[in-house]
Design goal:
Helix content is 38%, strand content 20%. By secondary structure, it is an alpha+beta fold. Strands 2-1-3 form a three-stranded mixed beta sheet. It is globular and about 35 Å long.
Length: 97
């Protein structure tokens, strides 16, 4: 269910010099999919250890580069809410080839 073209764009932007790259739509930052530099693993782990439970809040603290996808049909299927195992199963079913 991951769109290779969208992932490739996220990686290309990250390689251009951004530690964190996320998609944003009319609802704000969307944490999945995203690309994070490996060096952000420790700060992300520390945020969780300190009680941060919102991935959006944790990502936002890294001041990510945002790719505005509002109204761009190409990204519609790339944005998935995957907060629970049921969400993951639904995403897999909706995007199955």
């Amino acid at each position: 269910f991951l769109d290779r073209a969208v992932l490739a764009e996220l990686v290309a932007v990250a390689r251009a010099g951004h530690d964190a790259v996320v998609l944003a739509d009319e609802h704000g930052l969307q944490p999945f999919p995203a690309v994070l530099a490996a060096r952000l693993a420790a700060p992300l782990r520390l945020a969780v250890d300190r009680g941060t439970r919102s991935l959006i809040a944790a990502l936002d603290s890294f001041h990510p580069h945002r790719i505005d996808v509002a109204g761009r049909a190409r990204y519609r299927d790339a944005l998935c809410d995957i907060d629970t195992p049921a969400d993951l199963a639904r995403a897999r079913g909706e995007h199955a080839s």
